[in-house]
Amino acid sequence: MTAPVTSRHSLFLTTCLAGAAALLLASCASNDPVPVTDTKPVLPQILKSEAASQPTWATQLKTGDFSCEMGNKVQVRMDGRVTDGVTLVWKGNSYMMSPVSTSTGAVRLENKGEGLVWIQIPSKSMLLNSKIGQQLANDCRSR
Fold first, then answer.
1. ∠ CA(96), CA(101), CA(102), 5° rounding?
2. Which of 63, 67, 77, 93 is the most exposed place for a label (fewest CB within 10 A)?
């Protein structure tokens, strides 16, 4: 006699859970489509607000001196506030780098004029030249 009662309770519970899930999904639905461009943060808008906390890239950015493969050296420093940008020193020249959002969580800084791209992931960093499609420094690690 307990088996039919248990299966009735199980059926009732399953029906209630299915109904709750349907209501939850229906409440999340929107009739207004959101353009993809509206779903990504725009850094200049974040930086304009004085009360805004530092963007994620700024808290993840490793600064200082980096030793790379083949004896290459790179220096990354954030002078002043986040809005002042990031300076990258490579072979005696200083370059102002601007952050670029990524979907992977990597820190990416670019100087579009020179074609320089600095990418940092937790295990290493690298410097690329996007204009000529060449890797300038690889396996860079902070000293």
1. 125
2. 93
Tell me which residue has tokens 């030249």. 129
The tens digit of pLDDT for each residue in 6-40 reads 566 566 656 645 555 554 445 455 555 555 555 55
| SS3 letters across the chain | CHHHHHHHHHHHHHHHHHHHHHHHHHHHCCCCCCCHHHCCCCHHHHHHCCCCCCCHHHHHCCCEEEECHHHCEEEEEECCCHHHCEEEEECCEEEEEEEECCCCCCEEEEECCCCEEEEEECCEEEEEECCCCEEEEEEEEEC
Rg of the chain taking only CA atoms, in angstroms: 25
Dump pLDDT digits (tens) for 52-87: 556 677 788 999 999 999 999 999 998 776 666 799
Instruction: Please give the Cα distance from 69 to 141 (Å, whole number).
Output: 9
